[in-house]
Specification:
Layout: E1 2-3, H1 4-10, E2 14-17, E3 23-24, H2 35-39, E4 51-53, H3 55-63, H4 66-76, E5 83-86, H5 94-102, E6 106-109, H6 114-129, E7 132-142, E8 145-151, H7 157-166, E9 170-183, E10 186-190, E11 198-201, E12 205-208, H8 209-213, E13 221-223, E14 226-232, E15 247-251, E16 254-263, H9 269-284, H10 289-304
Parallel strand pairs: 4-5, 5-6, 8-14, 14-16
Antiparallel strand pairs: 1-3, 2-6, 7-8, 7-9, 9-10, 10-13, 11-12, 15-16
Length: 307
């Protein structure tokens, strides 16, 4: 469901004719330009989408006689359309306003060019209609890498995030992370509005990161590029020491690279996470220190082999 007022406010639209609805049941992020419908072709009409009228559609409507236009629009508004948006600051004809009021269809206006508005509206709908989930963890931006820090309660997630903020990185969400699946390969996380920019530190209580460290210390949302799972050090567990193999975790059917960091006194987790972020970026650019070392060792062994 899409909230009407949020749609209007976010896309900076002017209301030409209001609707009594508070929400629209819009199932797709796509929009519809009703040029073919104004001509009279209604097969495969995507009436459930927001309708966008550009210069071409408006010019065609204005070319019709008043009687013909009214007949075309009567048929058009017989479908349960959520809204009609006029781009380029154009105004609808009076008969269209009358029909929209009769059918409780919102008429809206944007000053933007049609293509630009379409892109912005689709990005908005993609965010609003994306599948959502909630996870316990901390989301931070470190050197441009969105890192989701997970682990059991009390392992030190918030304290690590606080140290990262002190070192100039940005907090997105603490304790509760709302995750939306914007496409098949990308997840975006943000904080619930109620607790946005707040952090709980045991022994101190609730602190406001934005008020304490400034607006540059927080971020509204961030894609999740890497998951770092913190766990208490287990003496008998063999932790990865080379990094030749990659581990992944799955969130909402999206595979995300994952690192497991053991926690014990003396380890500076903030610095380790900074290194992990830089190393992740290098791997994305095609360089792996572990594979480079492995290549050099193989070359050395090859040179030392007896002929």
């Amino acid at each position: 469901m899409v909230k009407v007022q949020d749609f209007i406010k976010t896309l900076n639209l002017q209301v030409l004719s209001p609707t009594s609805r508070e929400e629209w049941d819009i199932p797709s992020v796509e929009l519809n330009r009703p040029g073919l419908q104004f001509v009279g072709f209604y097969e495969h009409f995507a009436f459930e989408r927001p309708q966008v009228v550009g210069l071409v559609e408006m010019t065609y409507l204005e070319s019709l006689s008043e009687e013909e236009r009214s007949a075309r629009l009567e048929q058009y508004f017989s479908y349960p359309i959520p809204c009609v948006i006029f781009c380029r600051g154009m105004l609808p004809p009076e008969d269209m306003v009358t029909l929209a009021k009769a059918h409780d269809v919102a008429l809206l206006r944007s000053e933007e060019m049609t293509t630009k508005f379409t892109v912005n509206a689709m990005n908005y709908l993609n965010r609003v209609l994306a599948p959502r989930s909630t996870l316990h963890g901390v989301l931070v931006d470190v050197y441009g890498v969105g890192i989701l820090i997970t682990g059991e309660s009390g392992v030190g997630k918030s304290e690590t995030a606080l140290e990262l903020v002190k070192r100039g990185h940005q907090l997105v969400a603490d304790d509760v992370v709302d995750i939306s699946k914007v496409n098949d390969k990308r997840l975006v996380g943000e904080s619930p509005e109620t607790i946005r920019h707040f952090m709980e530190i045991r022994g101190i209580g609730i602190i406001d990161i934005k008020a304490m460290y400034g607006v540059g210390s927080v971020m509204m949302s961030r894609s999740i590029d890497l998951v770092i799972h913190l766990e208490h050090w287990k003496e008998k567990k063999a932790y990865d020491r080379l990094g030749l193999s990659e581990d992944f975790t799955t969130i909402m059917d999206v595979r995300i690279p994952q690192l497991v960091l053991p926690v014990r006194p003396g380890r500076n987790l903030a610095i380790i996470i900074e290194v992990a972020a830089r190393n992740f970026s290098l791997k994305k650019m095609g360089y792996s220190a572990a594979k480079e070392l492995d290549r050099r060792l193989n070359e050395m062994m090859g040179l030392n082999m007896p002929k």
